[in-house]
Write a structure and sequence with these properties.
Length: 274
């Protein structure tokens, strides 16, 4: 594992590079697209374990801190969805320049939605996509995130505020602080517009999808629709469920061996042996 800074469109981006293990035949590479806000920090241990597992079988991984997050330059308040898409493309090009042929995206939660949106925006930029517990509706995700801010206000003894009032504040270009993250109207609006079903209609690359939490009825319906859309377009989609804890939401979560092994198997089945 090596720490690398690469030049992004708005500043230096911090990455962790997991090269192919010595003596192992190279079998491509992936950019890891992280989840949103604190989920990124909570998921690091599991992501690192999976990246090491990939590297041990010949798949190099570049774990990316998006602009305004982690150890990359910029403030979270200045983050933009469009900038993040370009960050992902730059990371992919870095892997190609490093000599990797087939390059894919691996995204977790909102990072999975960003990964699909990046390929939607630039169809020839990546060769395949791996999704871990993807967010399907950006708006539903942001509503859930903003409710954290409402709960924080109540716990601090502040005035009760509704989600609509918080949304109205954002619409007036007033940033909102949630769990220590200052979120802008521009970023919120862009995430709101992102929808997995709509994006899937334009996908033309193989897709591997792993859910850790058992999907409820609404999510199951959406999964079935996405699989139908991809199937109609002749796009390969491999969906699997793996029982485990939601490590992106748990402090000091242990890596799940079953998730790691199932991910290796699924990627091998969809994209060739690893």
């Amino acid at each position: 594992m090596k720490a690398e800074f690469i030049a992004g469109p708005r500043g230096e981006l911090f990455t962790l590079y997991f090269p192919t293990a010595p003596g192992v035949t190279p079998r491509g590479a992936m950019v890891f697209v992280p989840p949103f806000a604190e989920e990124m920090n909570r998921a690091r241990a599991t992501v690192t374990a999976q990246a090491r597992a990939f590297a041990s079988v010949g798949v190099a991984v570049l774990v990316l801190d998006l602009y305004g997050t982690g150890d990359s330059e910029g403030a979270f308040a200045d983050a933009r969805w469009e900038t993040w898409r370009e960050d992902v493309r730059v990371a992919g090009q870095w892997l190609r320049d490093a000599g990797h042929g087939q390059v894919g995206l691996w995204g977790l939660r909102l990072g999975a939605l960003l990964a699909v949106d990046t390929v939607f925006d630039a169809p020839d930029s990546f060769d395949f996509i791996l999704l871990w517990e993807p967010v399907l509706s950006g708006k539903a995700f942001m509503d859930q995130f903003l409710r954290i801010g409402i709960a924080e206000g109540l716990e601090a003894g502040g005035r009760s505020i509704t989600l609509n009032e918080l949304r109205l504040k954002l619409s007036r270009t007033e940033p909102v602080e949630v769990a220590g993250y200052v979120v802008s109207r521009i970023l919120t609006h862009a995430i709101d517009r992102s929808d997995m079903i709509l994006l899937a209609e334009a996908l033309r690359v193989p897709l591997t999808w792993l859910d850790v939490s058992p999907p409820g009825p609404d999510r199951r319906d959406a999964i079935d629709e996405i699989m139908r859309v991809c199937g109609a377009a002749g796009v390969s989609i491999d969906y699997r469920e793996v029982r485990g804890q939601p490590f992106w939401a748990v402090q000091n979560a242990a890596a799940s061996p079953s998730l790691i092994e199932t991910t290796l198997s699924a990627v091998a089945d969809t994209h060739g042996p690893v």
